[in-house]
Specification:
By secondary structure, the chain is of the alpha+beta class. Helix content is about 20%, strand content about 30%. This is UDP-galactopyranose mutase.
């Protein structure tokens, strides 16, 4: 039996919205990002959470002036 993660949010009108996901991925590092992408391709719903503002962990690009 597959577990479903239930997530509640409050929209801009102050109404509570319950959202169901097939998978909760904690960490959008390389593995988490790839897993979420592959699960989504098979029709699963995925919620990815991470403390960083970018996905794929340390694998990212950044525009640096002067380089």
């Amino acid at each position: 039996m597959q577990e479903i993660f239930l997530h509640s949010v409050i929209n801009f009108k102050g109404e509570q919205i319950n959202m169901k996901y097939d998978y909760l991925v904690v960490g959008a590092g390389l593995y988490g990002a790839v897993f979420a992408h592959e699960a989504k391709k098979t029709g699963k719903s995925v919620l990815v959470i991470d403390k960083r503002p970018n996905i794929a962990g340390n694998v990212y690009t950044e525009a640096v002036e002067g380089i």
